[in-house]
Amino acid sequence: MQDPRSFFASTTNEIIIPTSTTDIHSVITRWSDERLQQPAIIVIPSTREDIIAAIQYARQKNLTILAGAGGHKVVPVNDKTLYLDLRKFKKIEVNREKATVEIGGAVTNLELMTELLKDGFYTTYANSGAVSMAGLVLGGGFCGALSSIHGLAIDNVVAFEGVTASGEVIKVDQSASDPKHKALFDILCGAGYGLLVITSHSMKIHKLSALNLDDTDKLWVRKYTFPGKVIGEVVDFFQKLLPVKPKLMPLILCVRAPPNAPFPGAPVIILSITYYGPSSEASKIVDPIVASTDIEKFAIASETTLAPFTSIFDGSKMIDAHGGFKAQHMSRAHSFSTSTIVSAFNRWKQLGEEVPDARAFSVFLVWGYNPTATIENGLVNDKRPFIGRDRSMFGNAITWYNKPESKAAVEKYATDISEILQQDDSRQGYPGATLPNNFRDNSKVHLGYTDDMLVDIRRVHAVWNPDSLFYNVLEDSGT
């Protein structure tokens, strides 16, 4: 049997061959340990030619290629996997004249933000700085209040470059004349997992000065902290912020009090309101609503600050750590009633009481945004698969546990809270919806794509990944 190292000897690939005693976390860094086992081989390429060699090796050995960048996608890694670690693809090249940026396949949101701010630009970012930009756009890419200004991340993509399953280096863009290339570009924008090893993609960039932020780069942030017992009052106030104005991002975060708090482990509610514009505008929107209620008397603490633009990633830092069994259970809706949010909160609280292993870091969030720009972009980019652009509300139950025996109870919770969050839309005849970024297998792809979208997605897979050499979520049974 040929030694894998001799196969790759003429390339610049780094090769790791795990054994049964290899600490998986020392060779693969991933947000979640769900479905994570030892791969057959780990290949770390430096060039597109290195990737082509990895494709050839995978075909010879009948392995499935799984490309990893930010490591936030919960996908199966096992002894039939060639794990393609793209960590070296970190290119960031700004084109000020065209107002675009070319982004390497492994560049994270924080890395890109840091570089763009040097030139006074920004683009559409995820809520976590640790997520890769490529992973963001492949699953649609909701970007908080930035989506109320510029739409989804996929609406801001102009080109992809990478290597196909046949070993071809290819570049596709929004103006491609070849129908197959245009179809590939469109499906990469929102349903792109398993179609291309992306070495780079290009996006539109926007001048930070256009937001008219205080002190050039400061966001207006109002934050209240409440005890869990006043969840009803908090949600009633939250509803008064709806429908959400453009540039505004109201968010409810439900967490457990830290060990050093007066009541460790107690449910705590954090209501934050962030405005991506001048503080004078923010105050005119929010202050009258506050004045018309008694919300401040229920708060344990409150503050209004001007926070650096980079602070948009601060809220996710506590759950950005890699390791542990984690997943996101996202529901997107047209509306959440007060009773629905309160019921979801109580189910989250119940999880912590019943499963101590999941108590400390499993959180529950609800937020809203103004979808006008997202809807308008969909009229132009109607071939980019993303269901329900008009849905303005998000609910996300992030679960985190460490003991395998906790899995059944956590999965039951995830099912329950998803059903709760979808009930208002269901009563109005709307189907459920989620973010494709959070797919764990093919069991709920109908929550991310319509039947017509799935026909187009499968048609493109048949052309560009016909034998599923690349991991394909549509063929993932979840076992």
UniProtKB/TrEMBL annotation:
The keyword Ligase does not apply. SUPFAM superfamilies: FAD-binding/transporter-associated domain-like (SSF56176). Keywords: FAD, Flavoprotein, Oxidoreductase. Gene3D superfamilies: 3.30.465.10, 3.40.462.20. It holds the Pfam family FAD_binding_4. It comes from the Eukaryota. PANTHER family: BINDING OXIDOREDUCTASE, PUTATIVE (AFU_ORTHOLOGUE AFUA_1G17690)-RELATED, FAD-BINDING PCMH-TYPE DOMAIN-CONTAINING PROTEIN. Belongs to the oxygen-dependent FAD-linked oxidoreductase family. This is FAD-binding PCMH-type domain-containing protein. The lineage of its organism: Eukaryota, Fungi, Dikarya, Ascomycota, Pezizomycotina.
